[in-house]
Structures are given as structure tokens and as C-alpha cells.
């Protein structure tokens, strides 16, 4: 079974033949929404809407620990996380798809480990490569097989949100080496690593980051919405291909 986490613009999987929805409890509380179990092209998938079914949970209040715990309990071969990002690197434009290979974490105050408290010994997981290499390779092959451009390497800056960044903050992120900016890859990626679940992300570039391109004077939320609507079917096509390819 493959697990898919959907972000802004992907609160349900259109091609999922739904079998059942299950509310789950975890030692860390409830996930953002009920888990949706079903099949895509005959292959089992479990889907979770990161921000809740009605997109009511902002990035800094997502219960990432409950989400990843609940998905892990389904025994998935991996988690594909879909999320919108802003583009910092000039050659990434709204509508482009990116598979990041690195993260810089600027978030704060989020519950970002399972290894704390009296019963769980401190553990320092290796996070040199924050995304699973094999799952990334499989996603790259799936995209190539159906002729969808998926940029293979990008540094993802995880910001706290829910507000967007200032132009000066984006300049700083660029100096730090970031290519795209989003609000959810952390702590999602590290929690999956702690539980040993392969995790990779597909990012949809929703807008130029603050102060860049047509966001020089501000970012239009309507434009973001339109871009996401158009690009999500490409993300779904990649996931479908991943499911049906036998590598
Ligand atoms: N910044 C942070 N997160 C985002 C953006 C952005 O510009 N666009 C979509 N998610």
C-alpha cells in the first residue's frame, strides 16, 4: 500500500475508488482527518488530507506526529507528500513540479520528534538525506515515463507560516541556498524518518515567492488557487504511474 498526504489543492484523490474511511486515534492524538482507504488503478492507497477535509488546519497546527503515526500503522511501502510551494529559484515557475532533495528548517515550536518523554530514549536520527532516495528515483522514473517534467533536485525551505514571507526573508532564504519555500515538509519528513517509513515529496510551484517575478508587489491567493487546480492532475498522473509500474 502507498500512503499519500495531500496539501493545499489536494484534499481528496479524484481517481481513488474509495473503499472506506477510518477515524484513527494515536498516542499523539487524532490525525488531521479520517484516513481514506481505496484503490487507484487497482492498487491499494491510503490518503490523508494534511489540513483536514475542509482545509481548516493551518500548517503550524497540523498534528504531524498523529498523521505520520496513523499512516505508519497502515504499513505503507512509502509516503508521497504533496504540497504547494513558492519559487525562489528563477527557473522554477508557477505550475512546475519539483521533487526536493534537501531541506532547511526554519519552523519553530512544532512537535518534531517521537523520542522525548520518560518512556522514549533520546535518539538522533540520521537526516543527511531527508527524502528517501529510492522512492525519489521511482517517482522520477514514473514522471519521465509519462512525459511530465519533475525537477529532481531542490532545496526546500520550511517556514512557520501561516503568513507568507517578506521579500527580505526570501532574499535571506536564497542566500542560504533555498530554491523553494513551503510550510509543511518539517517536521513531516523527520517524523517519517524516525518511524522508518520512506518519505518523498512532490511540490507544486503555486507562485513566485515574495518579491520575485509577478509577486514583486504582492502574492495573489486567487492566482495560487488557479495554478494548483491546474497542476494537481499532473501530480495524480505521476502517482498513478508510480502505483502501476513494477520497479
Ligand atoms: N511561501 C510559503 N509557502 C508557500 C508559498 C510561499 O510563497 N506558496 C505556497 N506555499
UniProtKB/TrEMBL annotation:
UniProt key word Glycosyltransferase: yes
Family according to the record: Belongs to the PNP/MTAP phosphorylase family. MTAP subfamily.
Site (Important for substrate specificity) location in chain: 165, 221
Top EC class, one word: transferase
Originating organism: Accumulibacter regalis
UniProt GO molecular function: S-methyl-5-thioadenosine phosphorylase activity
Additional notes on this entry: Although this enzyme belongs to the family of MTA phosphorylases based on sequence homology, it has been shown that conserved amino acid substitutions in the substrate binding pocket convert the substrate specificity of this enzyme from 6-aminopurines to 6-oxopurines.
Protein keywords: Glycosyltransferase, Purine salvage, Transferase
Occurrences of domain Nucleoside phosphorylase (ranges): 2-243
Annotated pathway: Purine metabolism; purine nucleoside salvage
Ligand binding (phosphate): 8, 50-51, 184
Protein name (Swiss-Prot/TrEMBL): Probable 6-oxopurine nucleoside phosphorylase
GO CC, alphabetical: cytosol
Positions of substrate binding: 183, 207-209
Complexes and interactors: Homohexamer. Dimer of a homotrimer.
